[in-house]
Amino acid sequence: MVTPESDRQHLDSVTTADGTVIAVASIGAGRPVVYISGWLSHLEHGWRLPDERAFYRRLARGCRLIRYDRAGCGMSGPARQPPSLASELEQLAAVVAPLGSEPFDLVGVSLGALVAVAWAAAHPATVRRLVLYGGWVSGAAVSPPSAREHVLALVGSHWGLGSDVLTDLFAPDASAAARAEFGRYQRAASDAATAQSLLALSYALDVGPLLAEVRSPTLVVHRERDRAAPLAQAEELARGIPGAELVVLPGRSHLPWAGDAVALAATIRRFLGLRPVGAAEGGLTPRQREVAALVSDGRTNREIAERLGIDERSAEGHVERIRLRLGFRSRAQIASWWAAQGERPAAPPAP
């Protein structure tokens, strides 16, 4: 299957005022939505993770999603100064500079939510709408001091074990295979020293004094049992930002693409004024739409194969590609999604 041009990730780079090279990726077309990632990222490795890629593709329908690796991470150059809120804002300034005077939507995830708050407070005219997912007001309130010290020491002294422990914390709803892959992804995204210093920054930041200065329409969205960032911190974010809307979703995963990523993407898209992603926007081929219809009818892979005149392995492959394209984790989610489209099965009649 040929991937549509609008579904491909395009890589570029910008340079900060101090000469640091920042890797930037964009996908889709339309008005800009700038996405500030959490603690660590790697634009190429993240794009290879099916669930993460599906989440970005879903967000990018009808807009241009712009992501970047912060200094010292992923495909970006080494940091020229210690991590700080000021350096984070300098990097974001370099990323949005090519947009000129056009206002953009800003999505901040985890640590990125704090950076997004600081940017929106300092540059209100640039931010059309602000989305904060999995964020907090004060890093000191995220976990007890003893827990923070333990995690920092583990990351600094044993990055392999530390990344695995944090993966279990960040994505308990992901499959074992997905968690193992994300652990490797974190280690590819950063060395131990950089990871430790960025995690320390996460714990040190406090954006409480900036909340009242945010003027952009704001959505605070959080999973109810997020194990990495307490819901109480999201509630505090929403109380502090004038007129902010708080949406609490079921789930316990901190990573946006783990757990029910479809519901999260739909919540963000609704707030940004982007239309719901239906069958056409999901990018399914005619054959995949036939398979989705049969899944909705409760057909097994063998029954799908018999109905469509293909082998069972091909039917299984179609179901898996549908799942990945739509960002789902199960056949039941495919069936529910198809039923929600209000369409009748597209499969041919039984012989």
UniProtKB/TrEMBL annotation:
<keyword id="KW-0238">DNA-binding</keyword>
<dbReference type="InterPro" id="IPR029058">
    <property type="entry name" value="AB_hydrolase_fold"/>
</dbReference>
<dbReference type="GO" id="GO:0003677">
    <property type="term" value="F:DNA binding"/>
</dbReference>
<feature type="domain" description="HTH luxR-type">
    <location>
        <begin position="277"/>
        <end position="342"/>
    </location>
</feature>
<dbReference type="InterPro" id="IPR036388">
    <property type="entry name" value="WH-like_DNA-bd_sf"/>
</dbReference>
<dbReference type="InterPro" id="IPR000792">
    <property type="entry name" value="Tscrpt_reg_LuxR_C"/>
</dbReference>
<dbReference type="InterPro" id="IPR050471">
    <property type="entry name" value="AB_hydrolase"/>
</dbReference>
<dbReference type="InterPro" id="IPR016032">
    <property type="entry name" value="Sig_transdc_resp-reg_C-effctor"/>
</dbReference>
<dbReference type="Pfam" id="PF00196">
    <property type="entry name" value="GerE"/>
</dbReference>
<dbReference type="GO" id="GO:0003824">
    <property type="term" value="F:catalytic activity"/>
</dbReference>
<dbReference type="Pfam" id="PF00561">
    <property type="entry name" value="Abhydrolase_1"/>
</dbReference>
<dbReference type="GO" id="GO:0006355">
    <property type="term" value="P:regulation of DNA-templated transcription"/>
</dbReference>
<dbReference type="InterPro" id="IPR000073">
    <property type="entry name" value="AB_hydrolase_1"/>
</dbReference>
<protein>
    <submittedName>
        <fullName>Pimeloyl-ACP methyl ester carboxylesterase/DNA-binding CsgD family transcriptional regulator</fullName>
    </submittedName>
</protein>
